[in-house]
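Tokens as discussed.
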């Protein structure tokens, strides 16, 4: 019985670490989706209020309250013209 206990304790600890890392990964993915969604909503609002899509992401940050942690996310933001919706993709930075 003691031998079984010594085997089960490390297995249980490894299982908890695995489960914890799965939850952390899912949380990071959900936050990335929230950042991208916030940028898309700000684009919609900017176009509705001002009649153009901004040429730079900084415009949304300065005027529409978008907050992006540059240590955590990289945002690909490419514009073609003032009346064409920009291509926006958010990437998670890995240390």
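Sequence:
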């Amino acid at each position: 019985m003691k031998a079984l206990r010594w085997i089960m304790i490390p297995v249980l600890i490894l299982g908890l670490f695995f489960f914890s890392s799965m939850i952390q990964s899912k949380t990071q993915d959900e936050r990335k989706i929230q950042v991208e969604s916030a940028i898309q909503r700000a684009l919609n609002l900017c176009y509705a209020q001002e009649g153009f899509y901004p040429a730079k992401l900084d415009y949304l940050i300065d005027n529409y309250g978008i907050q992006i942690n540059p240590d955590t996310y990289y945002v690909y933001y490419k514009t073609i013209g003032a009346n064409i919706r920009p291509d926006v993709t958010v990437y998670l930075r890995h240390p």
